[in-house]
Design goal:
The chain is an alpha+beta fold and 166 residues long. It has three helices and ten strands, in the order H-H-E-E-E-E-E-E-E-E-H-E-E.
Length: 166
């Protein structure tokens, strides 16, 4: 029985080695290189902070291999009118993410005009079991501050929701 198996393996190997397409087939294996459009970093989140007033957050931002940032931010803050914005900056270090952007629509443009830049920091605490956190939203030059990865204290805990930093 063992000699029959050895004979079959020998015939298979001989046929494979004699095949003129074996080398060409190996050359046709596609490359597995990463596209510049593939996300390098991604930060998503949604939830609430309930303090003296309820604040509701929703955001997603991704940065690709070419450094392009795309994403959306929706905020309903206790002391400010609700606004929507485009993410224009994303920086990630460990479990922290910084998102910067520009307001594209506002519930009250006298307080938060369209075109206003903003930034904030989030912390994904899933690994430690502590609540995820978000800083206060800052109005100001988004890209420069986002890329500097400033501390942006204080941070408040999400009571309902989750933040993911990758």
């Amino acid at each position: 029985m063992r000699s029959n198996l050895n004979a079959i393996v020998a015939l298979f190997l001989a046929a494979a080695c004699d095949s003129p397409t074996t080398i060409n087939q190996l050359a046709a294996v596609p490359s597995m290189s990463r596209s510049d459009a593939a996300p390098v970093h991604m930060v998503t989140g949604g939830g609430q902070h309930i303090g003296s007033s309820t604040e509701v957050y929703g955001f997603t931002a991704r940065k690709d291999g070419a450094g392009n940032v795309k994403g959306q931010v929706q905020m309903q803050l206790g002391g400010l009118p609700a606004f929507h914005g485009d993410a224009t900056c994303l920086a990630v270090s460990g479990n922290s993410g910084w998102i910067g952007g520009v307001v594209t629509s506002s519930q009250d443009e006298t307080e938060v005009p369209v075109g206003t830049q903003f930034w904030f920091r989030v912390i994904d605490n899933e690994a430690s079991g502590a609540p995820d956190q978000i800083s206060f939203i800052r109005l100001g030059p988004a890209a420069s501050i986002c890329n500097e990865m400033r501390p942006a204290m204080p941070h408040v805990a999400f009571q309902h929701g989750q933040i993911v930093v990758r």
